[in-house]
TrEMBL record:
Keywords: Aminotransferase, Transferase. This is Aminotransferase. GO terms for molecular function: pyridoxal phosphate binding; transaminase activity. Its EC number is 2.6.1.-. Residues 33-381 form the Aminotransferase class I/classII large domain. The keyword Transferase applies.
């Protein structure tokens, strides 16, 4: 190639799912009946009322031009009312909410706005891979903090506090945690905010799973004083079946958001007005929406747990979020080995836990964004594989 890519881009690889989904597509074209239990993209549509708002808006003569960089007031107000109703947290619609094209872009925006070369970001291992990529692309350095089943997948803040944190600017935190589905103890939130405050670290809480199989949705801003050192990303991707619509928000104090807007307003323009109004309608949905969604996911999660059981994996029940996470039996080298065996011998794709960090190596993650009959079929194939293997032994 005559034009060399930037040094920055060599810091990251193509996203794992971007590569793996290509391979799965190729296997499907070659006739393999793959069941994909990989990615957490809700398979059901948004509520009919949400879609009809979009339809009506699209038909209008107006509303097709550029939109405000800050999001339209109707959407900011809807996010603010939603925070009040769902988390009992009050946020100013004019100054403390910045609508985003999904929370993924917010991770990049925050990293670009608060990291200088040489600055460190504390990143969970295992955790959402985008935190590490965004840090690297922004020129920062990833400092992994290890999570493990032994401490409920929570950071050891006391241990971290004993280390040299002078270069740390940001800490990424995500509860309910992806990929493990862990929820922290109640006292954790207060301890986390105190940690950020004491060490001048911006705590960035990524909160897209708070309404999925989580009996107590929580915003970090329910902790007094969190405004001075915390940001929160939220998203309609999982909670409102709107992953493809690309709608999220950054919530936090005005002083932080005004820095992020400097970056974002140079990168993109406001989202399509019809999308924003539909999102506002989604945020106004009543309890029934969340109850129905969760009752569907509860059934699916049970089947996913049964698959883990059949595979001989060790796992906790009551995992929040869109996945079932389990530790593979010791006769497999790691989660990659089990994932490959299932893909190539049973046409079932399950994510190896190692893509979320080395702490995830001995684990696999099953998505429940798929109909019960497909999950049942995946389970049958798993049982068949085990039967065949046992017969050989
Ligand atoms: C922990 C976590 N954060 C953020 C995202 C991205 O969400 P969004 O669709 O809002 O960009 C995901 C998506 O899978 C996720 O698992």
């Amino acid at each position: 190639m005559k034009v060399r890519p930037s040094n920055r881009i060599s810091e990251v690889k193509e996203y794992y799912f971007s590569r793996k989904l290509k391979e799965i597509a190729r296997l499907k074209v070659s006739g393999k009946p793959i069941i994909n239990l990989g990615i957490g993209s809700p398979d059901k549509p948004p509520a009919p009322s949400v879609r009809s708002v979009f339809n009506q808006e699209v038909q209008k003569e107006e509303g097709h031009g550029y939109q405000s960089y800050y999001g339209i007031p109707e959407l900011r107000r809807a996010f603010s009312d939603w925070y009040q109703k769902r988390y009992s947290v009050s946020v100013d619609a004019d100054t403390e909410i910045l609508p985003l094209i999904g929370s993924k872009e917010g991770i990049m925006h925050i990293s670009m706005s608060f990291l200088n070369p040489g600055d460190e970001a504390l990143v969970p291992d295992p955790g959402y891979p985008t935190y590490q990529s965004a840090t690297a692309l922004a020129g920062g350095e990833n400092r992994l903090y290890k999570l493990s089943a032994d401490n409920g997948w929570m950071p050891d803040l006391e241990k971290l506090a004993q280390e040299d944190l002078s270069r740390v600017r940001l800490m990424w935190v995500n509860y309910p945690h992806m990929p493990t589905g862990a929820q922290p103890t109640t006292s954790f939130w207060e301890e986390l905010v105190a940690f950020g405050d004491k060490h001048n670290i911006l705590i960035c809480h990524d909160n897209p799973y708070s309404f999925i199989l989580n009996p107590e949705p929580r915003s970090i801003f329910s902790v007094p004083g969190a405004r001075s050192c915390c940001l929160e990303l939220n998203s309609l991707s999982k909670s409102h079946n709107m992953a493809g619509w690309r709608i999220g928000a950054l919530v936090g104090g005005e002083e932080f958001l005004s820095e992020v807007i400097k970056f974002k307003s140079n990168m993109d323009s406001g989202m399509f007005r019809a999308t924003q109004l539909a999102a506002a309608a989604a945020l106004k949905l009543d309890d029934e929406w969340y109850e129905e969604l969760n009752s569907m996911y509860r059934n699916r999660k049970e089947i996913a747990y049964q698959i883990l059981e059949d595979l001989g994996c060790d796992f906790e029940r009551n995992q929040a979020g869109l996945f079932a996470w389990g530790k593979v039996p010791s006769d497999y080298e790691d989660g990659y080995a089990l994932s490959d065996e299932l893909l190539y011998q049973s046409d079932v794709f399950i994510t190896p836990g190692g893509i979320f960090g080395t702490q995830g190596d001995p684990y696999i993650r099953i998505s429940i964004c798929i109909e019960n009959d497909q999950l049942d079929e995946a389970r049958n194939r798993v049982k068949e594989l085990i039967k065949t293997k046992n017969a050989v032994v």
